Every structure is written in C-alpha cells, then in structure tokens.
Amino acid sequence: MKLEPILAILGLLLSMGCSTSRGRPGVDSGPFSPDHITEFATLYQQNCAGCHGADGKGGAAMALANPVFLAISDDDVVRRTIQNGVPSTAMPAFSQSSGGMLTEKQIDALVRGIRSWANPDALTHMTPPAYAPKVIGNAQTGAKAFQTYCACCHGIDARGSSKASSIVDGSFLSLVSDRYLRTVVIAGRPELGAPDWRNDVEGRPMSDQEVTDVVAWLSSQRPIVSRQPSAITFAKQAEGVSQ
What we know:
The protein is an all-alpha fold. It is built from twelve helices and no strands.
C-alpha cells in the first residue's frame, strides 16, 4: 500500500478531531461584547448592586426597591439618573454618551427592571410630596420642621443619637445632593429603620413645604468648600431652568 494515501487520511482524521475537541472555539465563535448584555439581573448585579444592594434592598446607597421612592420617581427620573449620574456625588454617569459603559438599550433594561419593583398599593391612597421641590425652601423654617419631625432620632442638633447618625456631618453632606436628601426625607430608608414622610410623627405626615424647608436647612449646613449644587440650583434644575 502506498504511504501517501495513508498519511492523507490520517491527517484528515487528526484535523477533524482538533476541530471538534472540547474547549476549542467553533468556527462561528468570536469575542463577546459587553454591549450585548441586556438581561436586567446581570446588568444590575454588575453596575448597581455594589451600592444599592442585592435586589435593590439597599446598601451604602438607598434601596431602589423602596416602594415610596418608586412612587415619586417615574421612568424618566430613573433613566436620567442612570444616564447622567449625580454630579459631585458618588453616583456616576453610566451612559456611553456621558462617559460611562452602558448603551441606551442596557439603560432601558435597567429602568424596566427597577421600575418592576414598584408596588402601586404601597401608599394606601396617600399622596406623597413631589420628587422635585415646587418652590425654594426656607432654611429657618426648615430648622423648626427638623425639630418636629427628625430630632427625636437624629438629635436636637442633628449630630446623631443612639437611634440614628448625624446628618449634618460635613463629609456626609459633601457626598450627597439636595435631590438625595429630599428623596430620603420623603421615602425614608426602611432598610436602616428610617421612616418615610408619613411616619416621623404619628398621624402627622410631612407636607411638601415642610420637606422642602428641611432640605433647605440641611443644605445650609453643607461645608462652604463643597462643590454640591445648592437648593436653589436643584430647584432650577427641577424646573428645567438652565444654570
């Protein structure tokens, strides 16, 4: 028998074996782009859970599954925050157009997933204060409202007690925006035992104006060197007024 046909057949068998060997990439395989990931659970785990906790239950940052938060912040609010972040805070911009890593489709998937946690029955027919302030707050009036609604936990000087931490600490106020302060005053942080606007004083929910004034007072305690937007700036942004 001639050697050449035997070698040819042997070579063919070897090549077939290599092409189907375990772990060898298929002919149609190639690099997988992270841009193609649109599954909410994966996107949330990779981009949000580190701060907002597993399943939106809270961590270093507030719980996104908080039903009051989801009642006051609509799709556009959630989308804009993910896209653009919150300047001068720990919340970064995630959209590629703002320097982040996520496509618009991925951001849409995150918005849909986060909004799916909403509970329409959570407010028991009560109307919460608006997500954005309607008027500029009065810090002096806010100091009085703070004593009524907040001092029992955070202390009369807001520097903390055995029940809750300081909320006038300069480092804290330099890391959070007036938007965040307003959201927490309204929605609370139930994962930390902090009540929402309805439950600071039994039978006496905070009014929209009282929330606005408390945030104005807290903002006035922020260190002057901070680069945080002021309460006035936030109000203008909420109204669509350019800076």
